[in-house]
Automatic annotation (TrEMBL), chain B:
This is YidH family protein. The keyword Zinc does not apply. InterPro entries: DUF202 (IPR003807), IM_YidH-like (IPR052053). It is found in: Cell membrane. It is a multi-pass membrane protein. It comes from Streptomyces eurythermus. PANTHER family: DUF202 DOMAIN-CONTAINING PROTEIN, FGR18P.
Length: 109, 130
């Protein structure tokens, strides 16, 4: 997985690896929030609105996973990884924000 | 305020960040990215906390439960927006060779979390009595 980085001499500070793991941790945090959202959606007799909100949460997690995966690929295949694109950062933040909107819908159910 | 609007434009336009100054050492950019991700995790944890308050404190009165959950969710949204804004500001400061921006947000967030925590303690104690 790190063949590209090794080919150009490993960064002694392991910066790309640490950044890759940070993306993984963040994806895991998003997964925990999504699981809590699903629990809230299915709790006490699911209604149409709560099932929809739960499905949107799953889709948001998949979107976040996609962003993280493309970034991880960029980090592991290039020896000098390019800077994170603001578009990716904004997309990741919008996933978190939309998750919070779904949470509001579920809490007010 | 106009500075904030300009930052928002930068969120969506990677090429405009690259226009300014020189490219910093990629390790600095990666460190900035990890800081951004740490703040994003904090935001996700706050959102998860909002769900948890709603789910795991069912004995609370509705208004308190929903109020606390909404406060945590709002803090999560604020935290994630601030994460991307601070990341853009740091990235631009590094490209221009300026000092990194100072921020009062960590203090603000810790005060909010402390107030919510104290409110939780009070509410749980009072809620169990009543």
């Amino acid at each position: 997985m790190t063949a590209g980085a090794e080919g150009a001499g490993r960064d002694p500070g392991l910066q790309p690896e640490r950044t890759r793991l940070a993306w993984r941790r963040t994806t895991l945090s998003a997964a925990v929030a999504t699981v809590l959202a699903l629990k809230a959606a299915l709790h006490g007799g699911p209604s149409a609105a709560s099932v929809l909100a739960g499905a949107v949460c799953c889709a948001l997690w998949l979107a976040f996973l996609g962003i993280a995966h493309s970034r991880v690929r960029a980090l592991t295949t290039t020896p000098r990884p390019p800077t994170l694109a603001p578009r990716q950062a904004t997309a990741a933040v919008l996933c978190a924000g939309a998750l919070a909107v779904c949470a509001v819908v579920l809490v007010l159910q | 305020m106009s500075d904030f609007v300009r930052n928002i434009r930068l969120w969506f336009a990677p090429e405009r960040v690259r226009e300014e100054g020189g490219t910093p050492d990629y390790r600095f950019s990666l460190a900035n990215e990890r800081t951004f991700l740490a703040w994003l995790r904090t935001a996700l944890a706050l959102i998860g906390g909002g769900f948890a308050v709603d789910q795991f404190l069912p004995d609370l009165r509705w208004a308190w439960r929903v109020g606390l959950a909404l406060a945590l969710l709002a803090a999560g949204v604020l935290c994630s927006l601030r994460a991307v804004n601070h990341w853009v500001r740091c990235e631009r400061a590094m490209r221009r060779g300026e000092d990194l921006p100072a921020s009062r947000f960590p203090v603000l967030l810790s005060l909010v979390v402390a107030v919510v925590a104290v409110a939780m303690v009070v509410v749980v104690l009072v809620g169990w009595e009543g």
